[in-house]
């Protein structure tokens, strides 16, 4: 292998972890606490694969993220599977009433939430709240 090919392959492998972490990640116990302790703003999406409202919210969030890369660069988006974590400590602690609930957290504060809403303007306002918290 020549040097140029070696460096190209090495650079590609160096970028893979960053690409893998792009976009929302799936919730695991302790993840939210870890992100908050690191000073990050967290956007939680409590959803179920079979939920049509959740799917509509997901489409709006994806569109907004595509329109403004600053969201994804500054906010930790975490998907919480409702079927798996509906009775989990995080769900109870945050008093999540149902799937299709979106919540923004920073430090030990809840900055906002939407329950079963799919309005682009409402979701954008929540994401803007998260972005403002993350960048201030």
Automatic annotation (TrEMBL):
Source taxon at top rank: Bacteria
Keyword Transport: no
InterPro entries in the cross-refs: Thioredoxin-like_sf, Thioredoxin_domain
Pfam family, any one: Thioredoxin
Keywords per UniProt: Signal
Thioredoxin domain location: 7-136
Signal peptide: 1-20
Protein name listed in UniProt: Thioredoxin
Organism of this sequence: Pseudoruegeria aquimaris
